[in-house]
Model the fold of this input.
Amino acid sequence: MESVLGRYRNLIILVGVLFLQVLGLAMQVKKSGVDIEKTRLIRIWAVDAVTPFERMLVWVQTSSGNLWHNYFYLRGVRAENRQLKEQIEQMRLQQVRLADDAAQARRLQTLLAFKEQFISRTVAAQVIGSSGSDLSRIIYIDKGENSGIRRDMAVMTADGIVGKVLLVYPSVAQVLLINDQSSGVGALLEKTRLQGVLRGTSNGEVVLERVMSDEQVSVSEPVLTSGGDQIFPKGLPVGTVTKVANGRDLFLNIKIKPAADLSKLEEVLVLVEKQERETPTEDAVRMRASDILAQRLPSVPDKPATDAAGAASSHTGAGAPVAQPKTAVKQPAVTGAKPQGLAGAAKPVATVKPAVTGTNAAGVPKPTKTSAGASETPITLLPDAQKSSDTTGTEATRSQPDASQANPPSAQPKPVTPAPDNPQPPADENKPQ
Amino acid sequence: MPITYTSGEQVEVYRFGIPVTIGVPLLALFLQAFVPLRYPRFAVYIDLPLLVTIFFAMARRNPISGLLTGAVIGLAQDMLGHNPIGIYGIAKTVVGYGASSLGVKLDVENAGARLLVTLGFYFVHAAVYFTVARGMVNMTQTWSWSSGLLAGLANAFLGVILYFVLDKFKQRT
Done:
């Protein structure tokens, strides 16, 4: 027995080592696919062993290059040029987003509560390494958890998308490129708006899958992200169509040339924060319109209390007491900012004062939403004297719907809508009929 | 042809210092990960960790040492990628075992022998890798004979140069 073991010792050890590796491999590969996160602790050894050298070499390269370029060779121009390039990159990103916003607004203006994502914050990172294998198309960047980078964040350049963050270590992150065969990105064709799935192939090409073969796709048509993968915001450039052929299962085989040069990546942007915003709906537009209208309406200038009383007496100066309508005037109770027209008015007799949290940008108070979602309307009952003086065209106009309900038609003041540029309507016109 | 059959006693068995044993594979992994950033085709055609595995296995002429060296280098290479760990490990274990076993029986000290051995083991490595990747991991792999042959030759020629440099670190037992 011993002689057999001794004779085949090498072979037995070989089989043993291979068996252990096959076992380990089998444990990683499951029906649901490979979860790279489970082997993170093991991978970090190799990453920690290699990336410091890479980082150091990149640093030396960059430093020596910077030393030459920044101090010896066109010192000021280089710095300015870099700054301008960064600015251009940012502006190109912004331009892409704005162009897509405009197109989107035209198509979706009738939809309510439509949400879109936009880039809020990015982190610039330097590419310091790769997997070293053409069968695993990944890169390493010099920013990790410490810089706020998390898994599944989008990575791009100013030219287009690059990939997504696959694994994150404290100071390094692994990025899966879009031309890896395990990658998948929601994409759409810019002109035809046909949606598909962008995938990498084993030889490093990028193809757009799931586009039906009866669709018309033209070569050189731009491809954008569709946002369906919840990783890339909609509208980022992906690449252009280079070849269209009939594929299997009634789908087209569309080859894409990536917009970003994936083979020469040096610096990338990691999208660390994106926000959702709602496209303005009709309600929102109406609200804004009313705000704007309220802003444009003339306001009553501040008056001291005595003036107000004097004005009241002048209204009633004819001797015959005129029945003053009890006008319910809408007056938002404001915390922090008062509407101009009521700033110097006498204290109201009774005020139903809902909580208002502030004003909008134009100084117009925002109505507070109730739990049911409806806007609370602050109502103020003014004293008679004040009513006689302040029931101007302005107030009447503002409170017209409520006033018509609260008062008999005969007692209503004549509604006057002065021109926006005429803040104080003539006194005669304010007299109740 | 300079390949000659020799007995186990006739061939030289070498050993390496610890810095070389650790540093050279680490340097190979580092270069394999770094150079493709500047020269993207490097990763397609060159496999430096494979060349280092073959060199150490042939120089030590110990199958156990060879297969363990191959396993460690291969697993480290797997860790740098995102594919399951073990594909390169298995392939390089087989290559390490084969190269050291061959080193026991053949004199592979001259350039011609090294060229042929490296070319042969490149294809062995590719065959094992593709078998495991397709059979176990269900990865989609395509094989091109033209690019495979080109890569094999590129590795073989680079290997001859690399082995010549690494020969300087050999220590007689």
Remarks:
- The two ends of chain B are 28 Å apart (CA to CA).
- Helices of chain B lie at 18-38, 42-45, 48-60, 63-80, 87-105, 111-135, 145-166.
